[in-house]
Design goal:
By secondary structure, the protein is α+β, with helices and mostly antiparallel strands. The chain folds into five domains: 103 residues, Zinc finger, CHC2-typedomain (DNA Primase, Chain A), CATH 3.90.580.10; 141 residues, DNA primase, catalytic core, N-terminal domain (DNA primase DNAg catalytic core, N-terminal domain); 127 residues, 3-Layer(aba) Sandwich (Dna Topoisomerase Vi A Subunit, Chain: A, domain 2); 62 residues, no CATH class; 129 residues, DNAb Helicase, Chain A. It contains 25 helices and 22 strands. It has a five-stranded antiparallel sheet. Strands 15-14-16-17-18 form a five-stranded mixed sheet, with helices on both faces. The chain has a four-stranded antiparallel sheet with strand order 8-11-12-13. The N terminus is likely disordered.
C-alpha cells in the first residue's frame, strides 16, 4: 500500500512532539556559527549581511530572533525560511531527523500510479547519471569525455560534485545497461533518455538519445538527477542537446547549478545568471557560488519566480553577441516584472565567463562585477548603438521606449536617477524628461499603474503627540490606512502579551478590564486570539506572528512587580481610549457646528462635560 503525508492530517500533538524533540540550537548550528553568551547563543544572521552578531537563539524558549532584520520564530520557521520548505516539508524533515513517526493517508489508485511512475522516473535517472558518470571517471570508453573536461580545466572533484558524465559513441549503450536492471526500452523513451525509431511494424526499435557527448546532470534541490544537458564532441547537430520535457520534468521550472547556488545566492545577496553549463561550473569553482544558468532556453517566468524566492537582485552575464544581447533584454524584462532588481555585466576580451577567468583571473572578474550597468542603462546603450538619435524627435522616441522600464521602478530616488541619466545623455532638461515619462504613465490603464509604498501619518488628534508609530499604506489596499498606534499604547500591548506568554492566568483580568478586541496592532490581536482560544500559539502561525512572538519572548520581564505592571498597562490603554473618544466627540461637535446643527452640537457638548466630570 502506497501512502503519503498530508499537512492537514498531521495532528497538532504530533507537530508539538516534533518541536519538543528538536534541538533548535543543533539545527541552527548547521547553518550559523553560534557562540554561547549567558543563556542564549549568538551568531551572524543568515538572513541579512552583517559584521556584528545580532542573531540570537534561546534554547529555553526554543526560539530565534535577529535584532538587525527583525526575523524570528521557532525551529519550523527557521528551516522554512532557510531551505524554502513548506511547513509540512519542515515537519517531515525534522521528524525524520529526530525519529518522530508521522501519520499517513491511503492514496487513491490514480495517486498510487502517479507516485509509482514518479519513483520510477527518479530511479531511472539515478541509474542513468551513475552510468554516464562511471563511464567518464573509470572506463576506457570515457576517455574522450575526460580529454574534453581536462582541456576545459575541470578537475576530478568538480566532475564528482556536478555529477558530470559521458555518453559513448554507441546506439545502445544506455539501453543495454538499463535492460540489465529491468528497465524496458519504452520506459527509457518515456523518461526522455531513448528515442523510438518509426517503423511500420508494431514493435518499434529504440536507440540512445545521447551519443558521443559529455553530460551535465541537472540536479534538483535534493541533488537528485532529473534531466541532462549534453554537448557533442564531434560535428553532430545540434551541438547542445537537452532532455525533452516530460510529465515529471519541465525545463522552464529549473536552473542549472541551483542545487549548490541557492545557498550562495543567499550568502552573496544576489544571483549571477549566465548562459552555459561550463560558465556555471567555472564561476562556482572560482568563488562565485551564486551562479546559475537556464537550461538551454530563454529565461522563463517560472525561473524568475524561483530566483525571487532567494534574492531580489540578479546580475545577467550573457554573451556580447546579438543573441546574447537580446537574451539579456528579454530576461531582464521578465525579472523586472517580477520585482527583481536587474543589473547587466558585460565582459571584454573573452567570449564567455569561463574564458575570461582563464585569461584574466578572479580579481579582474571581481572588478568587472563592481562595474555592472543597471538594466535601464544597458537597454539605453543597446538602443543607441543600434540607432543613434540624431534629432529631437528621435530623442523623444528613445525616452518613450525607456519609459515603461523607468515607470516600473518603485523607488523615487532611483527613478529620478534614471531620469537625470537620460537628461544628461540626451542633452535634455530633467523637467522635460520627467514630463515625457509622466505622460506615458497617464496613458496606461489605471489598473496597470504602479503605486508605491508610501509612509503616511494620520493627524487624528487635537493634541500634540510626538510619540506616534507611523502607518504604511500598502499598494494592494491604498484606500484604508492602518490605524495610528501611539508609542505608549504599543509598549503597553507588548508588555501585556509578554506577561500572558509568561503566565496565561492574567487573561481573565485583561479581558474583564479591556475586552478582547482592544488591540491596535493587528499582530498583537492575532497572538492574543491564539492565546485566548488555545492558551498557546500553533507551530505553523505565519511568519509575521512568529517573528513578533520571538521578539516578545526575548524581552526581560520583572516578575517582582507583575500586578503593578499589569495595572499600569491597562491604565495606559484605558486612558488612551478615553482620550480618543473625547477627541472623536470634539471632532463630531465641530462638524455639526459647521453644518448649522447647533442643537446636535450642544448635545455633544453636554456629553463632553459629563465625561469630564466623571474623569473620563
Amino acid at each position: 500500500m502506497d501512502n503519503r503525508i498530508h499537512e492537514e492530517f498531521i495532528p497538532n500533538e504530533v507537530i508539538e512532539e516534533v518541536r519538543l524533540r528538536t534541538d533548535i540550537v543543533e539545527v541552527i548550528s548547521d547553518y550559523v556559527g553560534l557562540q554561547r553568551k549567558g543563556k542564549n547563543y549568538w551568531g551572524l544572521c543568515p538572513f541579512h549581511s552583517e559584521n556584528t552578531p545580532s542573531f540570537t537563539v534561546t534554547p529555553e524558549k526554543q526560539m530565534f530572533y535577529c535584532f538587525g532584520c527583525n526575523v524570528g520564530g521557532n525551529v519550523f520557521s527557521f528551516v522554512m525560511k532557510r531551505e524554502n520548505w513548506s511547513f509540512v516539508e519542515s515537519v517531515k524533515n525534522l521528524a525524520h531527523r529526530y525519529g518522530v513517526s508521522l501519520p499517513e493517508k491511503e492514496l487513491s489508485p490514480r495517486e498510487r500510479e502517479e507516485n509509482r511512475l514518479r519513483r520510477r522516473f527518479e530511479e531511472i535517472h539515478e541509474w542513468a547519471a551513475s552510468y554516464f558518470h562511471d563511464l567518464l571517471l573509470r572506463l576506457p570508453e570515457g576517455e574522450p569525455g575526460r580529454l574534453y573536461f581536462a582541456k576545459r580545466g575541470v578537475d576530478l572533484a568538480t566532475m564528482k560534485s556536478f555529477r558530470l558524465g559521458y555518453a559513448p559513441e554507441r546506439w545502445d549503450g544506455l539501453l543495454g545497461y538499463m535492460q540489465e536492471r529491468g528497465v524496458q526500452p519504452h520506459e527509457l523513451a518515456e523518461a526522455g533518455l531513448a528515442i523510438e525509431k518509426e517503423t511500420q511494424g508494431k514493435d518499434g526499435r529504440y536507440y540512445d538519445r545521447f551519443r558521443h557527448r559529455v553530460l551535465f546532470s541537472i540536479l534538483d534541490r535534493r541533488n537528485h538527477p532529473i534531466a541532462f544537458g549534453a554537448r557533442a564532441l564531434d560535428d553532430s547537430i545540434p551541438k547542445y542537446l537537452n532532455s525533452p520535457e516530460t510529465s515529471f520534468f519541465n525545463k522552464g521550472h529549473h536552473l542549472y547549478g541551483m542545487h549548490r547556488a541557492h545557498q550562495g545566492i543567499r550568502d552573496e545577496g544576489f544571483a549571477i545568471m549566465v548562459e552555459g553549463y561550463m560558465d556555471v561550473i567555472a564561476l562556482q569553482n572560482a568563488g562565485f557560488p551564486n551562479t546559475v544558468a537556464s537550461l538551454g532556453t530563454a529565461l522563463t517566468q517560472d525561473q524568475a519566480k524561483l530566483l525571487r524566492r532567494y534574492t531580489q537582485r540578479v546580475v545577467l552575464l550573457y554573451d556580447s553577441d546579438g543573441a546574447g544581447i537580446q537574451a539579456a533584454l528579454r530576461g531582464g524584462e521578465i525579472l523586472r516584472d517580477m520585482g527583481i532588481r536587474v543589473d547587466v555585466l558585460t565582459l571584454t576580451g573573452a567570449k564567455d565567463p569561463d574564458e575570461f577567468l582563464k585569461s584574466f583571473g578572479v580579481d579582474d572578474f571581481n572588478k568587472a562585477l563592481k562595474g555592472v550597468s543597471t538594466y535601464v542603462e544597458f537597454k539605453y546603450r543597446t538602443l543607441i548603438r543600434a540607432t543613434p538619435p540624431e534629432n529631437i524627435h528621435e530623442k523623444a522616441e528613445l525616452v518613450i521606449k525607456l519609459a515603461p522600464d523607468i515607470l516600473k521602478v518603485t523607488s523615487p530616488v532611483e527613478r529620478e536617477g534614471y531620469e537625470r541619466f537620460l537628461s544628461l545623455e540626451l542633452g535634455l532638461t530633467l523637467e522635460a524628461v520627467q514630463r515625457e515619462i509622466a505622460s506615458q504613465e497617464q496613458k496606461k490603464p489605471k489598473k496597470e499603474r504602479v503605486q508605491e509604498y508610501s509612509p503616511q501619518k494620520q493627524v487624528n488628534s487635537v493634541k500634540n503627540r510626538d510619540n506616534i508609530i507611523g502607518t504604511i499604506i500598502c499598494k494592494d489596499n491604498p484606500v484604508q490606512p492602518l490605524p495610528t498606534v501611539y508609542l505608549g499604547v504599543y509598549r503597553a500591548e507588548r508588555t501585556l502579551l509578554r506577561m500572558l506568554l509568561e503566565d496565561i492566568s492574567h487573561l481573565p483580568k485583561i479581558k474583564a478590564k479591556l475586552g478582547g478586541s482592544f488591540w491596535k496592532v493587528l499582530t498583537h490581536q492575532q497572538i492574543f486570539n491564539y492565546l485566548d482560544q488555545d492558551g498557546e500559539l500553533p507551530a505553523h502561525s505565519d511568519e509575521t506572528v512568529q517573528s513578533r512572538l520571538a521578539s516578545l519572548l526575548l524581552e526581560e520581564l520583572d516578575i517582582s512587580q507583575t500586578e503593578r505592571l499589569l495595572d499600569d498597562c491597562i491604565k495606559e490603554i484605558l486612558s488612551t481610549q478615553a482620550e480618543e473618544r473625547m477627541e472623536d466627540l470634539q471632532a463630531r461637535m465641530a462638524t455639526l457646528e459647521k453644518s448649522g446643527d447647533m442643537a446636535g452640537a450642544m448635545a455633544l457638548l453636554k456629553e463632553i462635560g459629563e465625561r469630564l466630570k466623571r474623569g473620563e
